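Quick one:
INPUT:
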């Protein structure tokens, strides 16, 4: 997936999550506001009923405009012309609160305007020790007597009603932050991987130029009569040429391994005959096979052989597999290359008589830079990128690769690639 597409998806996902969090916060805020308004309304109705009962008890028929005032969200003051018995006020109010199913603890203060003092205090439940914590306010002497009701735990009660939603919001925000952190780290790793691949590309291209120059120079020297007449010089030139070719091959493999990961750099897929590619690879390794006195059997039995993908990549992948089959044999390599059709796929198998691979190592052979331990076989060279590259090439062809192997019994690699 391209970086621009990832950024668009991240921006859209972030915007959606922000909208979700803001909406939930707005909803919680509205719930708190509505809950407070409902609480104030219910308490006001209870206090109006209490005032009415007090007036009936004292025989007072005076009218007072807005007798109940909300001083604070949990402090209410009631004005009454006749005070009556404070105990009666407490009993009536307690009864009315229970009838309204309001069970919050409260503190009651009764103020006598004639003595300019609080003549009665009481508290219920767990707030008895808070009886002196009622907020201070100015009592109005000209409006008669007053009594106040303070609900000290109402703030926490409001939050208790929505604690589930607060908890879910906190969990959601934590999850968002966690995934945001993970995504940022993945983007950093992606960026570092791109920098690494760019470095490898630049490095390998820089190496290929002098290596090509060395190859041309050695080929020119080989043709000189003075070199041809000197056996020592000819042998040294041959060593230089051989090692130069080997180094160029390694550089080419590193370059392909780096570029195959970048789908934006490799867009020239085409239809090609995989049998032709196999024959080209076998011909390239013919000299090496002859030097090792290898026994190679090629059984190309597949009838449908056209696939779609990167031909150059497949060429190098098949070369890697054949190269491994040759390298990991202690004695005379015995290699079988066969193809056949299975349903809508062509199957390519490369089987060898090498040292084999243990079950433990089979799980890791396609990991990048992983090399199977070879015991006493110390002449096997490589970077551990060959099979990882092969796997990526096969996956690029929308195919599958599997391996069967046991220590001492050789290995069989099977590539299953769909037809075009």
């Amino acid at each position: 997936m391209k970086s621009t597409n990832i950024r668009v998806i991240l921006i859209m996902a972030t915007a959606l999550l922000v909208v979700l969090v803001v909406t939930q916060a707005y909803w919680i805020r509205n719930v708190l506001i509505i809950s407070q308004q409902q609480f104030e309304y219910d308490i006001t109705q209870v206090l109006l009923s209490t005032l009415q009962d007090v007036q009936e008890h004292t025989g007072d028929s005076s009218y007072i405009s807005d007798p109940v005032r909300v001083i604070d969200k949990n402090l209410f003051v009631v004005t009454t012309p006749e005070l009556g018995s404070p105990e009666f006020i407490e009993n009536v109010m307690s009864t009315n609160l229970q009838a309204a199913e309001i069970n919050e603890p409260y503190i009651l203060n009764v103020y006598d305007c004639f003595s300019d003092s609080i003549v009665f205090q009481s508290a219920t439940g767990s707030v008895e020790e808070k009886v002196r914590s009622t907020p201070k306010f100015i009592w109005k002497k000209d409006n008669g007597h007053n009594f106040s009701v303070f609900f000290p735990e109402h703030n926490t009660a409001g939050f208790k009603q929505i604690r589930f939603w607060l908890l879910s919001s906190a969990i959601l925000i934590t999850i968002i932050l966690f995934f945001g952190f993970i995504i940022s780290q993945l983007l950093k790793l992606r960026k570092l991987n791109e920098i690494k691949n760019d470095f490898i590309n630049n490095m390998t291209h820089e190496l290929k130029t002098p290596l090509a120059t060395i190859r041309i120079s050695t080929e020119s020297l080989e043709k000189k009569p003075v070199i041809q007449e000197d056996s020592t010089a000819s042998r040294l030139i041959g060593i230089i040429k051989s090692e130069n070719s080997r180094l160029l091959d390694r550089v080419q493999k590193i370059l392909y391994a780096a570029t195959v990961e970048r789908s934006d750099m490799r867009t020239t897929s085409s239809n090609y005959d995989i049998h032709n590619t196999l024959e080209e690879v076998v011909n390239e390794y013919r000299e090496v096979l002859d030097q090792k006195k290898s026994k190679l059997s090629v059984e190309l039995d597949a009838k449908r052989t056209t696939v779609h993908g990167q031909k150059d990549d497949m060429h190098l992948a098949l070369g890697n597999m054949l190269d491994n089959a040759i390298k990991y044999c202690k004695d005379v390599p015995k290699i079988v290359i066969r193809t056949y059709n299975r349903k809508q796929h062509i199957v390519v198998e490369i089987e060898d008589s090498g040292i084999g691979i243990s079950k433990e190592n089979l799980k890791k052979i396609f990991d990048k830079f992983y090399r199977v331990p070879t015991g006493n076989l110390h002449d096997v060279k490589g970077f551990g990128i060959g099979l990882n590259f092969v796997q990526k090439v096969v996956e690029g062809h929308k195919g599958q690769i599997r391996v069967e192997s046991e220590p001492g019994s050789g290995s069989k690699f099977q590539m299953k690639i769909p037809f075009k």
